[in-house]
Design goal:
The protein is mostly loops and about 70 residues long. Helices cover about 0% and strands about 5% of the residues.
Length: about 70
Amino acid sequence: MDNRIVPILTPETTDLVSNNSPQSSQCHPSYPDICIPPPPPDLNCSDIPYRRFKVIGSDPHGLDRDQDGIGCEK
């Protein structure tokens, strides 16, 4: 995987929180730049407001279908 910078779309209001928030223990570590909770439920790209974010590790939601390290590219 290369070290390119991946732009992150962050909506102004969302139920998902930044990994820098006090709730970060509710964030799955596979998505280090945004907060996506671990399953259940299983989430799809259409369920979350973020696009083109870094994905590492196990990717339990399968948001990086092509396994290039970038989630919800399309």
